[in-house]
Amino acid sequence: MTTSSVVPRLGIAFVPVVPPERLRSVARAAEESGLDELWVWEDCFKESGIATAAAALAWTERIHVGIGLMPAPLRNVAVTAMEIATLERMFPGRLMPGVGHGVQDWMGQVGQRAASPMTLLREYSTALRRLLHGEKVTVDGTYVKLNEVALDWPPSPAPLLYVGGEGPKTLTLTGEVGDASMLSWAGDDESVSRRVQLVRDGLGEGAKPGARSPHRITIGQIAATGEGAQARVDAEIPVWGRKPGPGDGVAGDAATIAADVRRLGRLGVTTVILQPTSDEPDLEGFIQFLGQEVRPLLAE
Length: 300
Known about the structure:
Blueprint lengths: L8 E6 L8 H11 L3 E4 L8 H11 L4 E8 L5 H14 L4 E6 L3 H6 L7 H16 L4 E4 L4 E5 L12 E4 L2 H10 L2 E4 L5 H15 L12 E9 L4 H8 L13 E2 L2 H13 L4 E6 L6 H12 L6
Parallel strand pairs: 1-2, 1-11, 2-3, 3-4, 4-7, 7-8, 8-9, 9-10, 9-11
Antiparallel strand pairs: 5-6
Helix pairs in contact: 1-2, 1-10, 3-5, 5-6, 6-7, 9-10
Pfam family, one: Bac_luciferase
Protein name: Alkanesulfonate monooxygenase SsuD/methylene tetrahydromethanopterin reductase-like flavin-dependent oxidoreductase (Luciferase family)
Keywords: Oxidoreductase
């Protein structure tokens, strides 16, 4: 089991079961409550990660905004690099872009299902990272093909590139090609430790060119407080295709939720992204609870 311990950063997910017009109040609540990060999802066919991140960045001044995860099959890598670079230069130091395989059934619906998602993600993440670091890139891969492509306005420094996934091979790849890794869901100690170690296996011995910081590992965790919290968490987990089990979701008061966040930190996770239930009755109030009551307990 992983034994290195960190005090995790605390984030909130703006899940696209919430209509886009709610983003402004959510982003402002997250900023005012003192949370470290706000994450927006790019799930098909709900809400755009780039559009929501841009709006959230414009409506806030301090909080970091992540995009988890932009599906590589849907997006030409040069266009993704242009969009990330533009946002990073307009809001320096606050954008956390993330890419992944995409849900394969969704990719099939739009005619973009890759025969080898691993090959695509490797080629895509490598090229994207090079473009964001200001390189002129020529590559003739199976999926990614660029001929002397370079950004006119590369960000300096480049934002950390998050790469996410679920399977063992993909998790190892995220450590290899990304500056940071996104693990989809929490779980029991053994499961989280195993996945963190797979990421670390991918890091190898040498730092990637241009790397500026230790590799970050984020994880999602469904959370609720107040009356009926446990029942709401248990009902939410199957919505995302999972069965409730030990460590899946957390319900209770501030001390209970903070203890679970610290647990994940002891297992090597550096950011915990708490996801409210779809039926959360007071989303802004829940965010304020996390920032004002849970976050101060994390250092204890």
